[in-house]
Amino acid sequence: MGRIFGTFGVRGIANEEITPEFALKIGMAFGTLLKKEQPEKELWVVIGRDTRVSGEMLKNALISGFLSVGINVIDVGVAPTPAIQFACKYFGTDGGAVITASHNPPEYNGIKLLEPNGLGLKKERETIVEEIFFKEEFYKAKWDEIGQLVERDIIRPYIDTIKAKVDVEAIKKRNPFVVMDTSNGAGSLVLPYLLRELGCKVISINAQPDGHFPARNPEPNEENLQDFMKIVKSLKADFGVAQDGDADRSVFIDENGNFIQGDKTFALVVKAMLEENKGGLVVTTIATSHIIDELAKMYGGKVLKTKVGDLVVSRALLEHNGLVGGEENGGVIFPDHVLGRDGAMTVAKIVEIFAKSGKKFSELIDDLPKFYQVKTKKHVEGDRKAIVAKVAEIADKEGLKVDTTDGTKILFEDGWMLVRASGTEPIIRIFSEAKSEKRAKEYLNIGLKLLEEALKL
């Protein structure tokens, strides 16, 4: 973790921690870095935001920062985070910035800086941006060198590129009935239109952009989607899909109204892509289900495990020429499209898989190798990573098999349990998995007990 940036960008309460002054200085600092790296080049960046109330304020401040140091800006307005990442490559810019707090509540906002390929900024470059920020050693453009601002649409190119990557005719032939909930976020500008153009019958819920997120918390977890799950079942849809605030993740509900864990929809994509490509490298995190490992064995693939974080997975995909990547939270990364979690591309691929299978959504899930995973989280203040390290010490003393690649993972013969500090919120997450639901719950309880002991130390 840097002085400003976390695992990917920075987040905080809008107008308290993430202020216009802060955004201005971030634009000036990143712009100064770009100027130092390529002083003779005409430089361009892409900027976009999600639907949050504070987004326009912060976007304008960030743009001013870039313009003041002589960086030209392409403003794509409100768009999903993956669409803005896609825009970096599409427009051939020298970098970019996304104003978003993803799944956090409406009072939050944040800034993510991007490389020319759309990937999150490298840590060493973030460190330089931080140094420039705190020393306030900003480049000052002359009056006739101030950057220019242009507005461009990225939604249509983004949708068209996704459509070109799936079998639209097969989807139209089956004409799936999909209910979708974009949580009043940036996905509202993409998902309803994409699904209809793919050939689906669509009912949209919470698809009017509104940064107050009036309908539900933008985190698309089972707790927040209870009403949506009932709606999917009552309408007798083939399945439902819900997104977070910036639409980099999509989670699914089957025709019976059951919430599908993100590992399982990721597994559907992995299975299909390994079959289509006759193998390949799958990159995922240590927190993801071992379903992925089983599928790789079945379909001639290989699995590379990383620390938690879509930025880590994306970098590994790029470095190792991976086929597909993903996380346990429903984030799937298609490196030939966007080097980051891509909610819309995930939906398009799942719709294609569903259409070609001829099966019900629940049947597709039932066909996957059987593992059971349970999750919980605990609000914890203070040095959460130190607390998680204490969990490892206690577990080691108790003779348990411990992996500290990222957090504290305890390996059992028929499963595992992970205790890990969140990089964006004051919480510690506990995951567990086993080949029976009973065992998974037992392992989760072991994790909770170890965490309670660590908190007492």
Defining key terms:
457 residues, alpha/beta, Alpha-D-Glucose-1,6-Bisphosphate, Chain A, domain 3, 4 domains, six-stranded mixed β-sheet, five-stranded mixed β-sheet, 15 helices, 39% helix, globular
Radius of gyration: 22 Å
Number of helices: 15
Oligomer: single chain
Low-confidence stretches: none
Outline: globular
CATH architecture of the largest domain: 3-Layer(aba) Sandwich
> What strand line-up does the widest sheet have?
1-5-4-2-3-6
Biggest sheet: strands, sense, closure?
A: 6 strands, mixed
* SS content category: alpha/beta
Can you lay out the helices and strands and say which pair or pack?
Layout: E1 10-13, H1 20-37, E2 44-49, H2 55-68, E3 72-78, H3 81-91, E4 96-99, E5 108-114, H4 123-135, E6 149-151, H5 155-163, H6 168-174, E7 177-181, H7 191-198, E8 201-205, H8 226-234, E9 239-243, E10 250-253, E11 259-260, H9 262-277, E12 280-285, H10 291-298, E13 301-306, H11 310-320, E14 324-326, E15 332-333, H12 343-357, H13 361-366, E16 372-379, H14 384-397, E17 401-403, E18 408-412, E19 415-421, E20 427-434, H15 437-456
Q: Could you explain the architecture of this structure?
A:
- The chain is of the alpha/beta class.
- It has helices at 20-37, 55-68, 81-91, 123-135, 155-163, 168-174, 191-198, 226-234, 262-277, 291-298, 310-320, 343-357, 361-366, 384-397, 437-456; strands at residues 10-13, 44-49, 72-78, 96-99, 108-114, 149-151, 177-181, 201-205, 239-243, 250-253, 259-260, 280-285, 301-306, 324-326, 332-333, 372-379, 401-403, 408-412, 415-421, 427-434.
- The strands form four sheets. Strands 1-5-4-2-3-6 form a six-stranded mixed β-sheet, with helices on both faces. It has a five-stranded mixed β-sheet with strand order 8-7-9-10-11, sandwiched between helices. Strands 16-20-19-18-17 form a five-stranded antiparallel β-sheet.
- Strand 19 and strand 20 (427-434) form a beta hairpin.
- Helix 1 packs across helix 4 and helix 14 packs across helix 15 (437-456).
- GO terms for molecular function: metal ion binding; phosphoglucosamine mutase activity.
- Its cofactor is Mg(2+).
- Residues 388-443 form the Alpha-D-phosphohexomutase C-terminal domain.
